[in-house]
Amino acid sequence: AADGQDVRPVEVDEFQIGNAETYDVIVQPTEERAFTIVSEAVDRSGMGRATLAPRAGMTAPVPPLRERPLATMKDMGMDMSSMPGMNMGGSGAMAGMDHGAAGHDMAAMPGMAAMQGMAAAPGLAAQKPRGSDAMGDMGGMKMSMRDPQNAPGVKLGPGVQTIAPMPMDRTGEAGQGLESVGHRVLVYKDLIALTPSSDPRMPTRALDIHLTGNMERFMWGFDGLKFSETSKPYTFEEGERVRVTLINDTMMAHPIHLHGHFFELAHAPPGHGPRKHTVIVAPGGRVSWDFTADPGDWAFHCHMLYHMHAGMFQVFSVRPLDGGAA
């Protein structure tokens, strides 16, 4: 089960779990010996260890801490591999790759001169300064890391450090640092509800919500506003079927939690989206889910509680069709 709701069984070796998420796990040893079960911080700063053994006193080797994961272009909301001539390899990270030796003249590619710190060719715009807008115009595509056209509903201010120019669905990818571990890692697209949804209707409207922040100033919010700056909640009508898309404009993963509801992730066959109350939105990623609005005022927030207390909190306000009190 995921978040207490039945899903089809999935065989895995590792999974990443966000604050407030739950999974039911069945472990079936095939040998009569001790096994080490490890829980590991996402930044690889530490781990917890438990031993599963047929007899008390038995132990098993403990693996060393793995290297700290590094952010890639995808984590900045730029899936460069989808652009013609821009496939940088599987991870999206450029470090350590000799593109010149492979016959790729990076400076000759549209918009790449500024990335390499080289002087622009005659007739091209001067090199932009380093910073959140340094990507500039990639061959006619707006790649600014703070372009309001990429998120018209976001209020730009000091609490919005970046806006992902090319956010993508990452629910089929392993979590940060687990991309090439060499064994089976659970991804959201593995999860299929065991029984059909009780509400098979298609959504009648869509709502995009941007996860925004300034990591240097430790400011967090939704759509560019922390909770203390908001003047109204997200509003819904009782029984309304809505598709919500969460877009992560930051370079951190956020476990987003909705009170009072189970929503259905939108990747699965119709009616079989896994029902969850919390979902991790990967850096530079987007996650879509459908839900049926039940009356009341429901907390909606990041479950990294220091993010919530810093402002990444809102209210889903659901009212009857006549507009009366819930």
Automatic annotation (TrEMBL):
Segments forming domain Plastocyanin-like: 2-40, 204-320
Molecular-function annotations in GO: copper ion binding; oxidoreductase activity
Keywords recorded for this protein, A-Z: Copper, Metal-binding, Oxidoreductase
CDD domains tied to this protein: CuRO_3_CopA
InterPro entries in UniProt: Cu-oxidase_2nd (IPR001117), Cu-oxidase_C (IPR011706), Cu-oxidase_fam (IPR045087), Cu_oxidase_CS (IPR033138), Cu_oxidase_Cu_BS (IPR002355), Cupredoxin (IPR008972), CuRO_3_CopA (IPR034279)
Pfam families: Cu-oxidase, Cu-oxidase_2
Protein name: Copper-binding protein
